[in-house]
Specification:
Layout lengths: L2 H11 L4 H8 L3 H15 L4 H13 L1
Helix pairs in contact: 1-3, 2-3
Length: 61
């Protein structure tokens, strides 16, 4: 992931919406959405829920 995607990823893990991510990082909602989509694609999941489940399963194991 790019450095910016890592920032977005941390906010995703906090349950932030695209709008909240955009405000926190001073970027447009469109850009925030693009980063989220890129992260989901790179992690091989289709939704935020799947992403969170994958992250949590790694911590539980």
């Amino acid at each position: 992931m790019t450095p910016r995607e890592k920032e977005v990823f941390q906010l995703l893990l906090q349950g932030k919406s695209n709008k909240q991510i955009a405000l926190a990082l001073d970027i447009s909602e469109f850009t925030a959405r693009d980063h989220v989509c890129s992260i989901l694609r790179k992690k091989g999941v289709k939704s935020r829920g799947e992403l969170l489940a994958a992250v949590m399963s790694r911590y539980v194991l």
